[in-house]
Write a structure and sequence with these properties.
By secondary structure, the protein is α/β, with parallel strands linked by helices. It is built from four helices and twelve strands; from the N terminus they run βαβββββαβββββααβ.
């Protein structure tokens, strides 16, 4: 089989309205399913808001009314989006890239870990919960969230990495339902980390994502220990 071309890389300047972005993403997915559009990866920032995935627990919304809440069809619980957070929406044809959602999630994890490594940040996965994690002086912290949806084997929603995010905004929720561990951001872990640098690292490491989808074995990702006394 001939190698598939890389997806179109589309960064969006400024802050993107969440509802409008999701509507545009879903429309693009429909065009892809009809064979009328190519794979794309969108990079956006949103104004401050919360999303409620299909497993969201109302008890984990700690400050109702502080931020707009958007119910979404992706998996997961409450997540935060806001300025300084890189949100990545890959719309990929998994029908031609393996038809394996678990492999796709692992590929996203490997991609994010590789990009953060290029920014001087050692990250991995953890049994503490889904997403991207780092070890800090304060213990295990979450730096990135993953929530995906697949329709007719086209992926959408995706990955969010905290770069210069206002971490105080996370006080509005129990992030992704994980109460025992905090969140962190790239700017506090490595000098001179900017959104532009993270974007460049993501693009440079795009082959990690694409190769992980088609490799004979799932990607190997460092697993960070979730200390029993923190559970």
């Amino acid at each position: 089989m001939a190698a598939l071309p890389d997806p179109l890389w589309r960064p969006f300047p400024g802050l993107s309205d969440y509802a409008g972005t999701v509507a545009a993403m879903e429309a693009h997915v429909e065009r892809m399913a009809a064979g009328a559009a190519a794979e794309e990866i969108w990079l956006v920032e949103h104004p401050p808001l919360l999303t409620a995935g299909t497993s969201a627990d109302p008890a984990e919304l700690l400050a109702p009314g502080r931020f707009p809440v958007h119910p979404v069809g992706r998996g997961g619980r409450f997540t935060y989006h806001g300025p300084g957070q890189r949100v990545v929406y890959p719309m990929l044809d998994l029908g031609r890239r393996g038809r394996d959602v678990r492999r796709y999630v692992a590929a996203l994890e490997a991609w994010a870990v590789a990009a953060l490594s290029d920014c001087g940040i050692e990250a991995g996965i953890s049994e503490a919960g889904t997403g991207i994690w780092v070890e800090t002086a304060e213990g295990l912290r979450k730096i990135g969230a993953i929530g995906v949806r697949v329709r007719r084997w086209i992926s959408f929603h995706g990955l969010a990495l905290n770069v210069t995010t206002d971490l105080g905004h996370y006080d509005a929720i129990v992030p992704c339902g994980i109460a025992a561990f905090g969140v962190t951001r790239a700017a506090d872990l490595a000098p001179d980390v900017t959104m532009a640098r993270v974007d460049a690292a993501l693009r440079l490491n795009l082959p990690v994502l694409m190769h992980s989808l088609s490799a004979p074995e799932p990607p190997r990702i460092k697993t960070l220990e979730a200390h029993p006394d923190c559970r």
